[in-house]
Specification:
about 325 residues; alpha/beta; two-stranded antiparallel ribbon; about 20% strand
Length: about 325
């Protein structure tokens, strides 16, 4: 059979450029020079005999031929990456040259520092990167191969990712500690305090709005924030109330004395935090990081929160993966 003459480097450069829409961004992702990335693309297009990318547009777009090439290139490169990961999986420390973990910001205070220390000991020669992002961006980073593992709460199992359920995180009505009303009074708008919303640009904001519609709670739309810390600080000052999750409360111990957490009427309103991994990486990586992470979450997140809010016992808890 006649050789195609294709180079793996050409395909990797093409895949990166197709996903990022930029030769410069592709070069940064592959950690090569812009001129080298451009050379690889020109070689692949010469071998194909036709343009694969519309270089005159910003961001660059795939041509029809490029769309066909990308579909097959992704399949082939994915298979190669999985095989290399499987071959190397016998010694995780030796095979993991770098590890990029993207996480929702709720874990920044205690869990991620503890995990970073554990991974540094487990992978002494590896380069470790930790990124903090909103949940939907964590999934996007993984799907774009800009992260290897993620901690987030996707609404549905994301395509191309493995998921291990870790934490059952209930939504709660959070009010100033000095107030005595029940949750229903706040949801009916009878508490004479403004309701602080999360931005609808965030997944948590959209989930809370959907739940309010289910509960038929019509609350004035006046204040909207992206920062949990800002929201809970205002609540702790006695100025407002909100709906957030137990994990968000656990991440803000500095204002906990000024807060009281109340269960929502619908006890099923909760989210699941999962550990996510790209499918092209060997599942042993997911197994080992999960084994490190579970006891850290129990010690650094769940136990301190239950000490503050004993009523969350059995509700805010680690999950057995299904």
């Amino acid at each position: 059979m006649k050789s195609t003459g294709l180079s793996l480097k050409w395909l990797e450069a093409f895949e990166a450029a197709a996903r990022t829409g930029s030769v410069r961004a592709a070069a940064a992702r592959l950690e090569i020079s812009v001129s080298t990335a451009s050379h690889h693309l020109k070689c692949l297009e010469a071998a194909a005999g036709r343009p694969l990318l519309d270089h005159g547009r910003r961001p660059m777009r795939l041509t029809p031929a490029g769309a066909v090439m990308l579909r097959h290139a992704e399949t082939s490169l994915g298979a190669l990456r999985r095989s290399m990961s499987e071959i190397r999986s016998g010694d995780l420390a030796a095979s993991t040259g770098s590890l990029r973990l993207a996480s929702i910001e709720d874990f920044d205070g205690r869990a991620i520092p503890a995990l970073a220390a554990a991974l540094a000991e487990r992978l002494p020669e590896s380069r470790l990167s930790f990124l903090s992002r909103p949940g939907h961006e964590v999934v996007a980073l993984l799907q774009a191969e800009d992260a290897d593992l993620g901690l987030a709460s996707p609404m549905e199992p994301p395509e191309g990712l493995r998921a291990r359920a870790l934490l059952h995180d209930p939504y709660l009505v959070v009010v100033p500690a000095a107030r005595s009303e029940g949750a229903e009074a706040y949801l009916r708008g009878e508490a004479a305090l403004p309701f602080l919303r999360y931005s609808l640009k965030q997944l948590i904001g959209r989930r809370i709005e959907a739940q309010l519609r289910r509960l038929r709670a019509e609350l004035p739309r006046r204040f909207e924030f992206e920062s949990t810390r800002t929201i809970l600080s205002l609540v702790a000052q006695g100025r407002a109330w909100t709906i957030t999750t137990a994990l968000n409360l656990a991440a803000t111990p500095e204002v906990s004395a000024g807060l009281r957490a109340l269960p929502l009427p619908d006890a099923a309103f909760s989210r699941r935090i999962a550990l996510l991994q790209r499918e092209d990486l060997h599942p042993r990586l997911l197994d080992e990081v999960e084994a490190l992470l579970r006891p850290l979450l129990e010690a650094e997140v769940v136990a301190p929160m239950l000490a503050r809010e004993p009523g969350l016992e059995g509700v805010f808890r680690l999950l057995e993966d299904q």
